[in-house]
Write a structure and sequence with these properties.
- This is IS3 family transposase.
- Pfam families: HTH_21, rve.
- InterPro entries: HTH-like_dom (IPR025948), Integrase_cat-core (IPR001584), RNaseH-like_sf (IPR012337), RNaseH_sf (IPR036397), Transpos_IS3 (IPR048020), Transposase_IS3/IS150/IS904 (IPR050900).
- It comes from Streptomyces mirabilis.
- There is one protein chain.
- The chain is built from 12 helices and 8 strands.
- Helices cover 46% and strands 15% of the residues.
Length: 296
């Protein structure tokens, strides 16, 4: 048996004794290695299967998932795998997540702006949905011209609860996003809406809508991206993961944004919650609403 295997791994036909003497190895080492070959093949097949699963999850995230979220996605699928093993395989097979780039904002301060106090003070958390929202705007490039996107994000779940797109960034754009957030019916009385000091957010239209909805307005300082970091960070995620940087038409850009927000981000994208681990924004909202639901 050993002779047959030795021939398979030694096509030159040299004797095992000669080869071992040349390599200064005892023959027992060679035969031990040969005996372990079936187990090595089984392990290799298992690793190949795992790499294939990792590639599917990575491709499903549009190349966004790195080691932590790939590992979490495997666990959610019932795959109990050591995180260091996932890290090693992704490194060996050059599977890497997306690195975000810092974006340029649209913030322009109005000449006679009315500013609100900072009610958030860089505490981008909330114990339950509907208590604190953050908002911001960004521009997207299309062959037809620029398109602008305004969002409202719930700090308890990081779910995008309101958004609007247009070919302008006048005050009516963030007002439309705010109305969508309120229309979903989950905002508490006195809910905080935190933004930067852009002219759209200091406008009479936006402040009037805040008042109509029974909300409280909050603003960060001028020129400090950290005062609205949660909103800006979301746009970094969008531009890194949406899969396009220039669109043929504004309609195509809107369709991609809709799919990314409502299908991929809110319902599918894993995010690490300090208490629940890796879950989606929608799952976070469901769990938090269940935790705070009154007992029957």
């Amino acid at each position: 048996m050993h002779a047959e295997k030795a021939t398979e791994t030694n096509p030159g036909g040299y004797s095992v004794a000669l080869l071992c003497r040349a390599l200064r190895l005892p023959r027992s080492t060679y035969y031990a290695w040969l005996a372990a070959e079936p187990a090595r093949r089984v392990r290799q097949r298992a690793e190949d299967e795992l790499v294939a699963e990792i590639r599917v999850l990575h491709a499903g995230s549009r190349g966004a998932y790195g080691v932590p979220r790939v590992h979490a996605a495997l666990a959610r699928a019932g795959r109990a795998v050591n995180r260091k093993k996932v890290e090693r395989l992704m490194r060996e097979h050059r599977i890497a997540g997306i690195t975000r780039r810092r974006r340029r904002g649209l913030t322009r301060q109005a000449r006679r702006a009315v500013f609100a106090a900072d009610l958030v003070r860089r505490d981008f958390t909330a114990p339950r949905p509907g208590m604190r929202l953050v908002g911001d705007m960004t521009e997207l490039v299309t062959a037809e011209g620029k398109a602008y996107l305004a969002t409202c994000i719930d700090l308890a779940t990081r779910e995008v609860v309101g958004w609007a797109m247009a070919d302008h960034h006048r005050a009516e754009l963030p007002v439309a996003a705010l109305r969508m957030a309120a229309g979903r019916g989950s905002l508490e009385p006195g809910c905080i809406m935190h933004t930067d000091r852009g002219s759209e957010y200091t406008s009479d239209e936006f402040r009037s809508e805040i008042s109509k909805l029974g909300m409280r307005q909050s603003m960060g300082r001028v020129g400090s991206c950290y005062d609205n970091a949660a909103a800006e960070s979301w746009f970094a995620v969008l531009k890194a993961e949406i899969g396009a940087s220039v669109w043929a038409t504004r309609a195509e850009a809107r369709a991609d944004v809709f799919r990314f927000i409502e299908v991929e981000y809110n319902r599918s994208r894993l995010r690490k919650h300090p208490e629940f681990g890796y879950i989606t924004p929608l799952e976070t909202r469901i769990r938090l609403q269940h935790d705070f639901a009154p007992a029957a």
